[in-house]
Recover the amino acids of this structure.
């Protein structure tokens, strides 16, 4: 597994629910933001993926909520890829307050979809390695 990449996010008031804490669906947005930020930092763009004829897909996501987040909280959202071989990979993510408190843990299973065939490609890490200017961010 790669060392976790991290991006900071501020919880905005409009993302909270009637109880005043971060709405559950927004955790997924934060995780998605961190994943795309990692791709960008590694030199992979959406245009580059499309040019190669592939696109990332989420196959499964599990969220464990640990502590509430409130408007104004600052969090670091980590992202680390684990390559198990085959057509899929795991993405481990943590949403942590700046004081170190873990607010949520996310585990996802993803793959790369061949945009023409509409099937997962074999060995998605090979595509990431080819596209990335810094494949080390993926542990490759």
């Amino acid at each position: 597994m790669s060392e976790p990449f991290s991006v900071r996010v501020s919880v905005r008031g409009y993302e909270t629910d009637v109880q005043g804490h971060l709405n559950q669906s927004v955790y997924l947005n934060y995780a998605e933001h961190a994943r795309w930020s990692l791709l960008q930092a590694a030199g992979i763009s959406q245009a580059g993926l499309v040019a190669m004829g592939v696109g990332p897909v989420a196959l499964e996501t599990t969220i464990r909520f640990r502590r509430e987040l409130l408007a104004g909280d600052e969090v670091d959202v980590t992202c680390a890829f684990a390559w198990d071989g085959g057509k899929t990979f795991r993405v481990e993510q943590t949403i942590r307050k700046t004081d170190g408190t873990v607010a949520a843990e996310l585990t996802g299973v993803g793959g790369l979809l061949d945009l023409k065939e509409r099937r997962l490609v074999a060995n998605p890490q090979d595509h990431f390695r080819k596209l990335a200017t810094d494949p080390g961010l993926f542990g490759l």
